[in-house]
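User: Hi! I have a protein structure encoded as tokens and I'd like to know what sequence might fold into it. I'm fairly new to this, so please keep things simple.
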């Protein structure tokens, strides 16, 4: 029987065309859905990759730790290069004062070695008062005047209520000339571990990563990062991991040797919390 509106030879093709249109529409919908899912997945992967990159650059746990540890460095003032002032409750302490533009008088001055950018008589005079005590190596003491106590690596003493321990500081791979390091071990240069108001602070002095650093575990480690005469950034990262401080502070930059970019790279690479202090002049 034929349909009076459609010839019998047209009925089949019409329905096949409609079915094909339905299938094509369904396939297009599926393709759109698959594309959407792939796009969503791609966005998620990109977001995850960005998050991983950010974590690798500045691990959130380290950033959070550094923020929580800010009170440990609240009384530590970076004066540029290796110079610091620490304001204790009962004593004002300077370490390696250099190119100072003033500041409160010192009760205690610690000088790591005799090089001019660490043992600067002109800068010592700016902050010295009659009762100021200077603790330093014999070679640096020869350049200075006043109440001086000399130390060698391993010595311990208490001055102005501040516990002071002299520790080794020397080069392993930074040479003035073949076989002659800038800071020879036999010269007796020092770093200092001091305790101020219950906070243990390690000033490494001019040094490379050395075995004597391992396990010092101070609250705060002040570490050189410029390279050339002292640790490179990567070496400072290695040293910080060995020392295991609660927080590390980069130094030995900002006065013609190294740049603040070195400090930032150390902060990005270190496996311990790092705080980059502002330079105060």
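Assistant: Happy to help. Inverse folding works backwards from shape to sequence: for each of the 281 positions I chose a residue that suits the local structure. Here it is:
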């Amino acid at each position: 029987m034929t349909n009076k509106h459609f010839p019998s030879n047209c009925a089949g093709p019409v329905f096949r065309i409609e079915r094909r249109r339905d299938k094509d529409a369904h396939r297009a919908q599926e393709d759109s859905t698959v594309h959407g899912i792939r796009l969503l997945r791609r966005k998620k992967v990109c977001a995850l990759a960005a998050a991983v990159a950010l974590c690798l650059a500045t691990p959130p746990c380290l950033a959070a730790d550094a923020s929580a540890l800010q009170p440990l460095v609240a009384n530590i003032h970076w004066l540029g290069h290796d110079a610091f002032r620490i304001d204790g409750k009962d004593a004002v302490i300077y370490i390696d004062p250099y190119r100072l533009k003033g500041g409160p008088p010192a009760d205690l001055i610690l000088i790591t070695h005799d090089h001019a950018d660490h043992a600067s008589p002109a800068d010592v005079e700016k902050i010295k008062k009659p009762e100021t005590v200077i603790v330093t190596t014999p070679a640096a003491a020869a350049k200075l005047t006043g109440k001086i106590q000399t130390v060698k690596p391993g010595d311990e003493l208490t001055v102005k209520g501040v516990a002071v321990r002299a520790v080794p500081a020397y080069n392993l791979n930074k040479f003035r000339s073949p076989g002659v390091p800038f800071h020879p071990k036999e010269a007796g240069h020092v770093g200092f571990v001091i305790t101020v108001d219950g906070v243990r602070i390690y000033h490494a002095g001019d040094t490379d990563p050395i075995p004597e650093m391992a396990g010092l575990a101070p609250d705060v480690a002040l570490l050189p990062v410029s390279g050339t005469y002292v640790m490179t950034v990567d070496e400072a990262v290695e040293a910080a991991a060995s020392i295991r401080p609660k927080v590390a502070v980069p130094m030995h930059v900002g006065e013609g040797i190294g740049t603040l970019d070195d400090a930032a790279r150390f902060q990005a690479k270190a496996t311990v919390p790092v705080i980059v202090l502002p330079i105060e002049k």
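A useful reference point when you look it over: The longest strand covers residues 162-168. Feel free to ask if any position seems puzzling.
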